[in-house]
Every structure is written in C-alpha cells, then in structure tokens.
Recover the amino acids of this structure.
C-alpha cells in the first residue's frame, strides 16, 4: 500500500515535469519552425538588407521589412505612451482613494473590458476614431492603447494593493500628505512591478493583430509621422498568409516577418527581466 | 537633553501634553472605543496595557488619526494638543502628525537607503539643503545609537539592516521631524531580547525630551519603563494613573485580575 503511494507521488512529479518541459518545447519548436521556413529568404539576401531596406515589392522580389518593423514600433509606442499615464492614475485612484463601493462597480467592468475580443476594439476604432484621425498609426495607437488599458489597470491595482499599509502609515505619521506618500513611497516601492506590468502590456500590444489591421491603413511604406498610414508586422502576416503563396520566396518572407516579431518580443522580455533584476537588487525592494 | 542641530520647525504652542476628552470610535458599526478620557503627561512614558482586542491600538491610531485610513471608521470627541483639536484639525492634520511620531510593531523602513529614510521627513517638509540634511541624519542616527554601525554604508538599502537596527532607524526617522510625542505600538515585540532591550533603553533615554505613549503586551516591560499606566478593557478605560500606584495598588477589580494573570 505504502509503495503504491510512493509510486503515485513519483509518477505525479514526473508527469508534471514532462508537461512543463513540453510547453517550453512547443515555444522552441515554433522558433525552429520559423527559422527553417524563412531560411530560403535568409539565404538569398543579407540580414541587414532584409531588416533595414524600405522596399517591399514582392512581385519584383524585393523584401524590405523596415516599414513593418517601424509600423509595429510606432503603434506600440503610441499605445503605451497613451495608456500608461491613464492607467497609473486610474490604478492609484482605485487603490488609494476610491471607496469600496466604487471599486465594487469598477473592477468587474475592467474585467469585462479586458475580456472583450480585439475585433470589437477594431470595429470601435473604425466607427469612432477613424473619422477623427483617419486610417493612421495614431488611430492604431489609440485603439491599441484603449485595448491594453484594462490589462494595465488590473495589473497595477494588484501591484499597488500589495504594498503594505504600514508603509503608508509610516509616511503619513511623518506628516506627509497622501499624494507625497504615493509619489515617494508607493511608486518607489512598486517601480519594479510597474516595469513588469508595462512589459506585459507592451508584449500584448506588439502582437496584437486584428484591431490594428482594421485601422492602420496597411500601407507598406516607412511612416514619418503618426499621422501617416502604417503596416505593423502582425497585420502583414494575417492579411497575406494563404494568398499569393505561388510567388517565389513570399511564404518565406511572411515566415520571416513572424520570426522578427518573435525575436522582438523575446529580446524585449529578456532585457526587461535583466533590468528588473538589477533594479530590485540595487534598491532591495 | 538632546541637542537639536537647529530648529527646523516652528512649534505653535510648545506643549507636549495631550488631552483626550470623550473619545468614541466606531468602526463599521462596532463601538471600539467608549468615552475615553485621558491626559497624557508631558515627557513621561505612558504605557497602555490590556488584553487583545481591548482597543489599545485603536486608541494609539486615533492619536495621530491614522484611524482615518480604516474604511468605515468614525471618530468623535476631542484630542487636544495645546489648544488644537486633532479631530477637527482640517488641513493642519499633516502638520499635527509631524508632531506625533510613530514606531510600529514591525520595523517598517521605507523603500530607500538608510540616509534617505532619516532625511525623508525633512525633505517632505521642504528642507533640501544637502549639508543640513547630512547633519540631521547624523544627529538622529547618533541619538538612537545607530551611527557607528551604519556610517560606512549610509547609501545601502535600509532593508539590509537587522530587525533591531531597522527599528532604531525607524525611531531616528520619527525623531528627525522633531515630534513632541512618540507613539509606539508594541515596538519591541518583533525583536530578539537584546535588540528589544536596546530599544527599551532608548525610550527611557528619550523621555527627557518626548512624551512617549507605548502600547505593550508585556506587563514586565510596562513595569520596567512606565511612569504612567493606562489599563483598557473592551474599549473602555478602566484605570489610569502612576505606574507604581496601578501596579502595586490597583483600584479596580478587572485591573487586579489582569495584573495577576487571570486573563490576557
């Protein structure tokens, strides 16, 4: 009887270990698959040309990904610049100032907003923002910003709530106003957490496809301002995969687009983790 | 007498007496403090004792109005410091809080360096001069006997100190804004015996300059350091007076029982 229990215990550990490894392997397999599939393109042209050339003419065999890379960065940048201050202030209000009644109404609504499919945000953008700002990067950024807002707010609320009230009390007892305590103690204590939340939101924004595809204008040219149309990477892949695959190297090009996105997100996550680790260590937060 | 590097703050009336009249506190419909009347004497250690849940901490948290941050808390009555009533002090609350230091149960260093922890209070009150801040930090770290231990690493995070050191740092932080009162909520209960004795001795030294109000669970500690004792039970003030009188000759039946260990 006892040996059976021990066997079960070991088996459970083994199975869970296997499943964990398997999910990591899937990510590895994706990376390998993308590299293999984009190999034909990578072999035919130097990497620098692919990344930094602005000429996208698949019919003539010219594949420059810079317009898409730039479009992705623009849209994501605008989104986070718009969403971060709003979500910070919202979260601070909810945690530090709002009464319980207000919270009990706002939190469920945030969850609903966070759970809405992105196509709804896209439609909302087409109906409301496009008439004002046109099919531009700005519109894409606004729509994306609104989309990541509920995610950011709920992450930040969690983070601010985790700050022990004894810290606020200590600051208040020295004669600090509530705003001073928030600025100098709460925000400082939570800075690594805020950074982590921003990273998560940016990762989400980088990969968002449908909503930006619907409002950005999808013009494969390098944008020079946010009032121009753009063509983020995910939109490129989603719009074109399955069509014109008879063109030489076209499939490889789309796979390479996916690979760029993969690497951008990977690099971004790794760097932010390193920064986070350093910050936490330096300030012993 | 503790030397003050220079008077940074102007105290209105320089009185360190606190007078509590008809204090009632309700939290979410529950009557936590019932008609408390009490005078906190100037430059003495007043220990508040009583069983768990008797309202000791609530009383302490009323004295600097941190009770306000508890949702559903309602406070009425008078807490007079000089002529000012803490309870309807309006915008003067932050200034009044500066005059009432707090040392909490668990050491609670702010997420910054040792130096910044002590300088923080002065900075929020508008003192920016680096030289002045350095003087203040050194002075108050010396006052709590921490200077020699940390002078080499003032820029290290405060959390790198031991618990006992952290508690003394928190005390230095409170002293740096030149309060008249120090509220201590079981300030030694999280510390080991030696650190706890250190902090205790510090309080005895500090009572020459500050009025100290200390909530404690350890009767022996109260016997050691208290000048005045306040005994509370179920939100009511049962007995208050000179420590020698309350300990040696308690008037109230409940006090006798509590002191003899019949309940805790």
């Amino acid at each position: 009887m006892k040996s059976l229990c021990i066997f079960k215990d070991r088996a459970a550990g083994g199975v869970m270990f296997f499943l964990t490894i398997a999910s990591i392997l899937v990510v590895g397999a994706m990376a390998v698959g993308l590299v293999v599939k984009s190999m034909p393109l990578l072999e035919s042209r130097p990497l620098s040309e692919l990344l930094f050339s602005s000429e996208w003419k698949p019919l003539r065999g010219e594949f420059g990904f810079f317009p898409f890379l730039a479009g992705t960065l623009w849209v994501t940048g605008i989104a986070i610049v718009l969403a971060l201050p709003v979500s910070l202030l919202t979260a601070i209000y909810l945690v530090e100032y709002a009464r319980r009644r207000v919270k009990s109404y706002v939190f469920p609504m945030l969850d609903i907003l966070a759970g809405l499919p992105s196509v709804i945000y896209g439609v909302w953008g087409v109906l409301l923002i496009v008439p004002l700002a046109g099919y531009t990067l700005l519109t894409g950024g606004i729509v994306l910003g609104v989309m990541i807002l509920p995610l950011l707010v709920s992450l930040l609320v969690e983070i601010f709530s985790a700050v022990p009230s004894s810290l606020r009390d200590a600051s208040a007892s020295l004669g600090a106003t509530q705003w001073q305590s928030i600025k100098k103690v709460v925000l400082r204590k939570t800075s690594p957490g805020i950074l982590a939340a921003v990273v998560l939101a940016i990762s989400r924004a980088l990969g968002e496809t449908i909503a930006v595809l619907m409002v950005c204008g999808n013009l494969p040219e390098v944008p020079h301002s946010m009032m121009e149309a753009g063509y983020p990477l995910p939109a490129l892949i989603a719009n074109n995969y399955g069509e014109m695959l008879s063109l030489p190297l076209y499939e490889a090009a789309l796979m390479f687009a996916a690979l760029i996105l993969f690497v951008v997100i990977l690099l971004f996550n790794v760097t932010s983790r390193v920064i986070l680790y350093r910050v936490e260590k330096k300030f012993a937060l | 007498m503790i030397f003050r590097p220079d008077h940074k703050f102007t105290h209105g009336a320089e009185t360190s007496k606190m007078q509590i009249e008809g204090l009632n506190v309700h939290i979410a419909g529950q009557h936590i403090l019932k008609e408390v009347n009490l005078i906190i004497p100037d430059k003495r250690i007043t220990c508040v004792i009583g069983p768990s849940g008797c309202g000791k901490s609530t009383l302490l948290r009323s004295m600097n109005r941190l009770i306000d941050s508890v949702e559903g808390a309602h406070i009425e009555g008078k807490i007079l410091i000089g002529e000012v009533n803490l309870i309807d002090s309006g915008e003067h609350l932050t200034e009044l809080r500066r005059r009432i230091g707090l040392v909490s149960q668990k050491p609670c260093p702010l997420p910054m360096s040792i130096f910044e922890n002590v300088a923080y209070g002065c900075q929020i009150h508008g003192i920016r001069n680096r030289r002045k801040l350095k003087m203040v930090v050194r002075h108050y770290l010396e006052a709590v006997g921490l200077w020699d231990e940390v002078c080499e690493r003032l820029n290290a995070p405060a959390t790198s100190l031991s618990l006992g050191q952290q508690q003394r740092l928190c005390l230095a932080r409170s002293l740096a804004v030149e309060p008249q009162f120090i509220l201590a909520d079981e300030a030694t209960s999280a510390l080991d015996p030696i650190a706890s004795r250190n902090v205790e001795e510090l309080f005895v030294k500090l009572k020459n300059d500050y009025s100290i109000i200390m909530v404690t669970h350890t009767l022996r500690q109260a016997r050691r350091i208290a000048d005045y004792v306040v005994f509370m039970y179920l939100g009511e003030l049962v007995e208050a007076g000179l420590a020698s009188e309350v300990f040696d000759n308690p008037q109230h039946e409940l006090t006798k029982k509590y002191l003899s260990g019949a309940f805790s």
Q: What stands out?
A: Chain A touches chain B at residues 99-100, 164-177, 180, 184-185, 188-189, 283-285 (CB under 8 Å).
